[in-house]
Structure formats: structure tokens, C-alpha cells
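Before the break, one more example. Copy the sequence into your notebook; we will annotate it together after we see the structure.
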Amino acid sequence: MDEVIDFDITGGYYPATSNFPPEELWNTIKAGNNMWVRPGNRLEIAGGPVQTSATNVGARIFPSNDSRAEIGGALVSGRLPFASFLRLPGGVLLFLSELTSQQVYVNETALTGVTTSSSSGILRVAIPDGVGGYNVFDAGFDPPSLPSGNVTTPAGGVLNMTGTVMVALSAWRTVTNAISAPSNLIRVTLTAGDIVSIQLPAAVSGQDGWVFGGTETGGDQTLPLRVVRYVRIAPRGTFTATNGSPNITAGVGTFFNQDLRAGDVVTIDAASYTISAVTSQTTVTLTANFAGATGAGKTMVVTTASAEWVAGSLGELIDFDVFKPVKAAGVFEFLNRVFLWGTDGESSSAVTGPGIRLMLADNPEHVGLFGLRSLGGDILNVLPAGDERSNSMFLLTRTTLELLTLTNDVADPYRIRVNYEPGFKTARAGVFYKNVFYGFAQRPFRTRIDGNADVVFGTPVFTDMAAWNPDNVVVMVDPKNEAVLFAHYDGSANTTVIPYMEQMGVWSIPITIVGQITDWAVVGGKMYIIVLSGGNYRVQEWEAGTTGTPNPYFASQYRFSSQRWKVKGYVLTGVVSAFRIYLATYSGVPDVSIAAQASYSATFLFPTSPEIQPEVFTNLAPARGVAIRCDFFTSNLSRFDRVAMRGYPLETRR
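Here is what the structure looks like once it is written out:
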């Protein structure tokens, strides 16, 4: 009596099976190329990537809100260069790279003047200039030096300051409110009627202000340093100055009450004047008549800042534990805080180190004393967990995968445990997707925040990945297909991508990409990759092609190994270019990945051929096993739904 066997492929890609797998694995795929496993026993052709532009952007790409950010620079001895990019509120950019003076791009367009630092691993800040460009600086400030001779105590005060105070200056960037640690402290002794004046030192690159600090009056030099005033080197707005008059008038956009004090020395039209009084937000009087040409639209520069104060009138504390960012391998944002990672290398030439430094929330561009240290040594990447309630992040090191959890305990601020050993070869050898970490460290594995490493899930593809060079592996996330992609470059021409279908819990058929995938990012729900081919690093949108990738096919496992079976015919549902049957006999088992070894072959001429083919009758020799293979057109119309094969075991032959 005839039997009908459906070739079920819902178990996904499982090349690691034997030629005759156990019955529970009959529903898997033995071999294939450039196809997606879909729910409901369907296979669809994989769409190819599409290049977004001809710009050679470099090896790194990062998500930046709804844009793509790229940092120039080639692979370093075959590995991905360490680099990072963040866009902060207000459009301020933070970025770094181990490669110096490299161009930064947004959506493959070069940002004029925005390049990485001239020193390896130094954080850069790019601040919008209001006219479509950026002002770019190395982040943070070192403490300035304040010569004692720059501090004087002229008369003219009205607050009757007396006693001894300590004063200092901190460098200030007004746009980001970045403030350095204070300079050396200068001791000043005051008599009634004195004010404190500080001749401002030369500003460093990117600095446009100073923080004037002082202690309370009364002679206690151990009192904490507090803000006396903020000094903008160029006070805001423009004004009118009249020859022969001490009055500065008609301020436009000026904030003289905040930006100037009596006793300040300013430069107007290259001449120096002293402020006598600040009379309003838009008017000021000088101690001498203005000697320049009468005119509007003038600006000034403060060269000496003056102040007087009384006990209880000072502002917030000035922190001494403020440091310019140290050399790092990357920067990331987590729990609304910014961290540097790969810090504290053993030498200034080290590319990465074992440390993580927290940047100050109230003083951007600087780090404080708080730091973390991995257990496994140099950090290759840091991946914050998607569930921020866990306060956790994964650290990829060369020897370990570690879970670092931040606590709210000042005495015990963080905890680290090792989740998996051995470690990683590349920075992109792991991803965090839907509360699960997926990684490749000699083999594929996964782990949850509160779980142990699971290496069993990679069993189906161990044979494919066994020969992979860990130096050439990138692990990515494809949100469109809800897949985690394990990609390996063969070292010469192609990258093989094996997807794990997260929602279905099965592996999908390998996809071949011409060239080397160096990096990836998800922007606006779409995945983008950088492909190195012909010496060029080009951005490509994943699965954006209107036609499929070349040479798509799949082949099933062998079935009916317990007894010989006679195939009488089959019915195919789908749109394929060729259908093949492989018969295994006692003399050998044909390789289903080789089309020429098939025992039967039928071809179809048009990609729009009927989805349900009429039954095809065959006259094939009995076999101890049978497998099928479907080859597909590169048209996206190609797909597979079902093959029903009719036949009978020889024991029931009629």
C-alpha cells in the first residue's frame, strides 16, 4: 500500500546530523544557501544587501538616533579598530578611535572638521556651531595654573571684605558646562574695602570661560572652595560705544548683570577699560571715556575678573576630584550616564585596558574617582543589558564574559561574576537581544542575566562553525527577520552568515555575502553593515534587495534508513527552478550539497510557475534512504512550502 511522506523542514538548519538522523531530526535541513526558514514549513529566498552610497567611510558604524554615524579608518592587522560614537541631547557628539585624525560621517556624508583626536583613544566632543557646522575639541580640561602675581586686591569694594581667603580658577566650556578641577590655590589677605581681581591666564583650545572660586571670608583656609562667579571670556551680545563717553549702551542679546562685575578689565576695539558699574542687562559704565570710534555691534573680552563676597553668599562646591578623560577604547551610555571603557591600560601605548570610568553627570566631558575593573583583563566591548532594571552590563574580555551589576550601595557599588570562559577574539563577537546575550567564543553560546551559559543551542551548526576563525567572526541582530546573525569571513572573498531565528528557536540556512562584513548597526529598525570589498568600506542596507542572493537552494535530511523504499512520485508546492531527488544505496550516500550527485532532476523554466505542481511520476530504483533538494530562481517570488512524496517500503510492495 502506498504511503505519503511530507518533507517537513520546521526544525530549521541542522547540518551537524549524521546522514541518517534519528526520526526527531527528520524535519531539519541538511544543506542550503541564501534562504530564510519561515514559520509554517515555508522557505523564502534571502534578499541581497544594497549599497547606500559610494562613500568609502571606514570600518566602523554606529546608530545615532535616526542616523548612521561612521568613523573612518581601516582594519588594524585584520581586526576591527576600537572606536565609539554617541549623540547627546542638544546635538553634541562624543566620539573616539584608536586611529588618529580620522573623518567622522553621518549617513555617509563627511562632517566638515569633525575628526578623531590626534592622540589615540582620546575622547572628542563636537558642539553644534549654530550654522550647520561643529566646533571640535578633545574632551575635558586639565587644571589650569594660576600665577600668584595674577591675583591682586584693589580698593573699591562695598561689602567690607576682611580677613584671609583662598581663590582659584577652573577652566569652563559654556556650551556643555564642562569645568576642570581648580588651579592651585592662592592665599589673599583683605582689608576693608578690598575686592579680589584675577588677571585671567591664556585660555586653552575650546575654552570660553572661567569659574572664579573662593573660600568664605574669616581666615579659615581649610574651608571648602565654592563658586564666586562664572566668567564668560567674551560676554554675550553686542552693544554701542560712543567716543568720549564712559557709557556702554543699547545692548543686544547682552546679559551684563551676569557676565560683568565692577572692577573687571575688558578689551574693546583693542583698547583696555575697567568696568565702573553694571547698571542693567544692557548698559554698563566704564571708569574712563571710550576712546575708540563710535559704533554699534561692538563686543568685548574680559581680561581681568573681579569679585567681592560675604559669608554665605557663595555658590556650589567646586570638586577637586575632576579629571580629563583618560585614554579609552570606547564610550557608551547606560542608565542615562556616560561611561568610558577599556581604560587603565598597562602603558600609554596599550589599545585597551581592564577599566571602566564613569563620566560626571553634573560636569560633562570629565571623569571622577569612581572606576570599575574587569576580572578577565583587557576589555574588548561592553554591552549594556536591554532590561535597565537589572542595572547590568556584559563585559567581553579576551578570557571571559563577565556580568557587571551596579548596586545602590556606596560601600559595595558594583559586583562582577564570570558567565563564560574562554573569552573573545573580537569586539563584535557578541550581542544582547531580547534579554539574552548571544556570543561566539570558539563556539556559539547564549546566556541570560540570571542564567548560566547555554552552548547546546549551537549544536545544529557546530559542524559549519568548527573551522571558523574567531578573529573573523561578527555577531549581529537583524530586527526585520527577528534573527541573531553569526557571520564569518573566509579570509579571501566571502562572509557566511548563519541566522538563529530567535522567535522560532531554530537555525536558518547560511547566507553568503561577497566581501568582509566588518561592522553593523541597527538604525530606524533597519540593519546596516559595512562591507570591505576591493579595498573599500561601503555601507549596505541588509535585506534591501529587490531580487534574491545568488544560488539559493536547500536540501533535506535523508529518510527511511531502516528499510529500502520505492519512490513512485511527488507533488511540489512552491516556486522553484529545479527539484532533485537523492537516493542512498548500500554502495554510497550522495552529497546533497552537490547537484550533480542527484538521482533525479526536474527543472522549471519560469519564476512564476504554478505554486502547486501536478504530481510527477518517477521510476527510480529502490533505496535505503531518500533526500530532496530544491534550487530557486533569484526572484523574490521563489519559495518552498511542501513536497509530498508517494511510495512504499519494499516489504509492502504490491
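The mean pLDDT is 93. The radius of gyration is 35 Å. Try to locate both features in your own notes.
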